């Protein structure tokens, strides 16, 4: 933190906010790989099974691997954009609730993972329902 002889309350608050964001960003940067590994490990096998199911029921041409890969890439990009809001959410949570930085980080990460897994499961369920129409 830089030292200023005459600094107003706004400048002091801005420096404190910058400090929170910097600390939060570095903490979330370390968790980014863990988050992506968990999401890939949960969604990729499900998409692969759906693709095999589509081939099994004769819809392999209509629902090729590109169909599922396109949705996986879109979901992955959307999940990472939401993940990037983590440092901002953590710094706001710590300022408002007066929590320690690490405690808020892991609570927010767990909530974000549960939310992302829920969204992924809803998307996979919708794809399963769509493919199940061919069994009737």
Lay out the secondary structure.
Blueprint: H1 9-56, H2 65-83, H3 86-97, H4 101-132
Whole-number tally of structural domains: 1
Question: How many β-strands, per DSSP?
Answer: 0
Helical content band: over 70%
Structural class: mainly alpha
What's the number of helices? 4
Terminal residue distance = 66 Å
Please tell me how large the radius of gyration is. 21 Å
Main sheet?
none
What string gives the helices and strands in order?
HHHH
What percent of residues are in strands?
under 5%
Provide the low-confidence segments as ranges. 1-7
Q: What general outline do the C-alpha atoms trace? A: elongated
Mean pLDDT: 78
List keywords for this structure.
single chain; 136 residues; 82% helix; 4 helices; mainly alpha; elongated
Give a structural overview:
By secondary structure, the protein is mainly α. The protein has one domain (40-135). 82% of the residues lie in helices and 0% in strands. It contains 4 helices and no strands. The protein has helices spanning 9-56, 65-83, 86-97, 101-132. Helix 1 runs parallel beside helix 4. The radius of gyration is 21 Å and the shape is elongated.
């Amino acid at each position: 933190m830089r030292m200023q002889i005459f600094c107003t309350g706004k400048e002091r608050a801005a420096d404190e906010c910058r400090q929170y964001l910097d600390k939060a960003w570095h903490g979330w940067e370390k968790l980014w790989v863990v988050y992506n590994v968990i999401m890939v490990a949960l969604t990729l096998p499900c998409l692969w099974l759906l693709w095999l199911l589509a081939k099994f029921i004769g819809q392999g041409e209509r629902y090729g691997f590109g169909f599922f890969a396109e949705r996986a890439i879109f979901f992955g990009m959307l999940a990472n954009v939401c993940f990037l809001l983590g440092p901002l959410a953590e710094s706001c949570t710590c300022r408002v609730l007066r929590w320690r930085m690490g405690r808020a980080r892991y609570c927010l990460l767990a909530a974000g993972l549960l939310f992302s897994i829920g969204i992924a499961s809803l998307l996979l369920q919708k794809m399963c329902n769509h493919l199940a129409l061919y069994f009737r």
